[in-house]
Structure to design on (454 residues):
């Protein structure tokens, strides 16, 4: 019995139509990234497991796809070690699929530091993998479009990321809200409630607020040893309303005794002053419940949500002060943001925002009426291709209905037919398939005919 073809859960095949849409996304973000001076790099799909472990927190480490060593991976493993899964995995798996593009980027910077000009600005568009539970908008394999600058602490870099978000989603025609917070404010809050040692637990729990709600977040905080009085003081901060200026003023009073908290407020104030001067058109707001669960963030953090389509965040990032220090290069602050191509695709498709030209395939199909007719059509097809049009000649002589059906399945706009009569008169019969309108055009005028159409 033949094996039924399948792919792993959380992964997808992409046909021509989907790839056209995805390439539209990639091409758009690349154009904007380059405008701000970012250059492309790529890193391997797999990294040494030691590079990845410990960078994303305990929950992130659990989502790493580990790669079994080649050969006899279990050779020399004692029977007693088989029962200890974490210890065993480290012995039989030396490599893992990358979880994100930021940690491999930090590794790249340290490894190639003598070849780079700092501040180093790069963009990277590649897939990442997470052993997560697949659900709508959440996949085990997905593409990220990252843009980062490393080697500078200037808030102008944060501003550039805001401007890039504004421009990218403006080009896509997606209404978004960009939420901003600062991890220093969260560190100050942890300090103010007497749990500075629980910052990671607090941020990991807060990061789930949109998914599980405030009550479940409070339960998780309690389970991590955070007392009720501290939780009661954290809760109103997460639900804080008012203008950005009012939120900052209130937090300044709450964190009056926290040096790191006040520094975070000063950084946010500076950034919002720059955003105001830049004339950013998308919605931007301070969200003090925004935490970003990854351990390496230390300053400004960002998250973007679509306003007209129900889905999780479609873009996010932040500043990391010493991610390269893990690999031996201390004091190299960086900041970046990642566009989730797969979720952006879902939003564009759901809102009908893909432009026709972005997802169009073959525009003109030349029907095949025989060998002589095909030879007659070849120069016309070549002329259209030279002008940038997408053109096919149907490869076999067959019934015209079959060729019409082929054109219909591929959403071809025009079918061009040339039989003996057209050859004798030096013309072409052009049919616009959506309207049924037919035109007889001199073969030498085909380029001008389509130039007027477009």
């Amino acid at each position: 019995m033949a094996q039924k073809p399948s792919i792993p859960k959380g992964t997808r095949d992409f046909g021509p139509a989907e790839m056209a849409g995805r390439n539209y996304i990639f091409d758009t973000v690349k154009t904007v990234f380059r405008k701000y001076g970012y250059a492309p790099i790529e890193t391997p799909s797999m990294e040494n497991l030691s590079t990845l472990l410990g960078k994303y927190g305990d929950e992130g480490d659990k989502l790493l796809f580990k790669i079994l060593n080649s050969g006899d991976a279990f050779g020399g493993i004692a029977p007693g070690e088989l029962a200890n899964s974490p210890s065993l995995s480290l012995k039989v798996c030396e490599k893992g699929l990358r979880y994100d593009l930021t940690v491999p980027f930090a590794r790249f910077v340290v490894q190639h530091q003598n070849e780079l000009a700092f501040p180093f600005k790069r963009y990277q568009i590649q897939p990442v993998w997470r052993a997560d539970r697949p659900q709508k908008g959440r996949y085990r394999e997905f593409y990220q479009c990252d843009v980062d600058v490393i080697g500078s602490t200037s808030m102008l870099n944060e501003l550039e990321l805001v401007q890039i978000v504004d421009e990218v989603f403006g080009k896509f025609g997606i209404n978004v809200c960009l939420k901003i917070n600062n991890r220093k404010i969260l560190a100050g809050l942890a300090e103010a409630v007497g749990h500075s040692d629980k910052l990671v637990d607090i941020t990991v729990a807060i990061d789930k607020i949109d998914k599980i709600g405030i009550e479940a977040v409070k339960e998780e905080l309690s389970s991590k040893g955070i007392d009720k009085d501290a939780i009661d003081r954290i809760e109103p901060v997460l639900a804080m309303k008012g203008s950005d200026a009012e939120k900052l003023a209130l937090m300044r009073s709450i964190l009056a005794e926290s040096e790191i908290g006040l520094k975070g407020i000063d950084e946010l104030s500076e950034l919002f002053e720059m955003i105001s001067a830049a004339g950013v058109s998308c919605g931007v707001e301070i969200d003090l419940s925004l935490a970003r669960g990854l351990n390496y963030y230390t300053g400004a953090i960002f998250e973007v949500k679509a306003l007209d389509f129900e889905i999780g965040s479609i873009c996010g990032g932040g500043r990391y002060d010493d991610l390269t220090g893990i690999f031996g290069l201390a004091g190299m602050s960086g900041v970046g943001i990642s566009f989730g191509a797969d979720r952006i695709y879902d939003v564009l498709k759901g809102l009908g925002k893909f432009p026709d030209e972005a997802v169009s395939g073959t525009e003109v199909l030349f029907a095949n009426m025989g060998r002589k007719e095909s030879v007659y059509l070849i120069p016309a097809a070549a002329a259209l291709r030279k002008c940038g049009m997408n053109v096919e000649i149907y490869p076999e002589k067959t019934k015209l209905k079959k060729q019409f059906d082929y054109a219909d399945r591929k959403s071809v706009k025009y079918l061009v037919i040339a039989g003996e009569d057209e050859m004798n008169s030096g013309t072409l019969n052009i049919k616009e398939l959506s309207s049924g309108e037919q035109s007889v055009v001199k073969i030498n005028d085909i380029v001008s005919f389509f130039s007027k159409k477009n």
